[in-house]
């Protein structure tokens, strides 16, 4: 994903880099998140989350609740709708994607019942099989 962002920065609007101390402090004050894969933590540190393509939001620590891209607010709302606590939603848009904190996998969920549709081993695998597969050709990503 970061290679595509470098090639087409107009398609990726990140919230902003976080230093290690800032991310660790944020995680310490948000223990409800549970265990996160290292690649997601690294991604949040580099980008803070943000908007991708025209309809996709990667939730992050620096998200803005009024804009709907705050990690805590979105997860709280989904848990109130019945999402199991083992899921940590980090992406909304074309589909709903979460980390399954019990297994460490990335999962695509049905938006209504939070059932797992597909599993991915890494953030990059998820991105390539979902967002890049949908938008890559349209935006000339190679």
What does the model show?
By secondary structure, the chain is of the alpha+beta class. The protein has helices at residues 2-7, 20-28, 38-47, 71-80, 123-129, 131-135, and strands at residues 12-14, 50-52, 56-58, 87-92, 96-100, 105-109, 116-120. The mean pLDDT is 92. The relative contact order is 0.15. The longest helix is centred in the first third of the chain and has 10 residues, at 38-47. The protein has a 7-stranded antiparallel β-sheet with strand order 1-2-3-4-5-6-7. It has a single domain (2-135), classed as SMI1/KNR4-like, CATH 3.40.1580. The chain starts with a helix and ends in a 7-residue tail after the last helix.
Task: Summarize the model shown.
With 142 residues, this protein is an alpha+beta fold. The protein contains six helices and seven strands; from the N terminus they run αβααββαββββαα.
List the helices and strands and how they pair.
Layout (H helix, E strand, L loop, with lengths): L1 H6 L4 E3 L5 H9 L9 H10 L2 E3 L3 E3 L12 H10 L6 E6 L3 E5 L4 E5 L6 E5 L2 H7 L1 H5 L7
Antiparallel strand pairs: 1-2, 2-3, 3-4, 4-5, 5-6, 6-7
| Total strand segments | 7
Distance linking N and C termini: 12 Å
Classification by helices and strands: alpha+beta
**SS element count, helices:** 6
Task: Describe the structure using short key phrases.
142 residues; alpha+beta; SMI1/KNR4-like; seven-stranded antiparallel beta sheet; 6 helices; 7 strands; 33% helix
């Amino acid at each position: 994903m970061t290679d595509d962002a470098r090639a087409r920065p107009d398609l990726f609007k990140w919230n902003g880099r976080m230093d290690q101390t800032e991310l660790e402090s944020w995680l310490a004050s948000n223990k409800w998140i549970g265990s996160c894969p290292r690649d997601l933590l690294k991604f949040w540190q580099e980008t803070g989350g943000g908007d991708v393509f025209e309809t996709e939001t990667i939730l992050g620590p620096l998200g803005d609740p009024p804009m709907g891209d705050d990690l805590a607010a979105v997860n709280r709302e989904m848990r109130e709708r019945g999402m199991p606590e083992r899921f940590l939603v980090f992406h909304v848009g074309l589909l709903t994607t979460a980390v399954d904190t019990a297994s460490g996998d990335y999962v695509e969920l049905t938006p209504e019942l939070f059932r797992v549709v597909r599993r991915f081993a890494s953030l990059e695998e998820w991105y390539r099989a979902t967002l890049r597969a949908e938008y890559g050709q349209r935006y000339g990503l190679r």
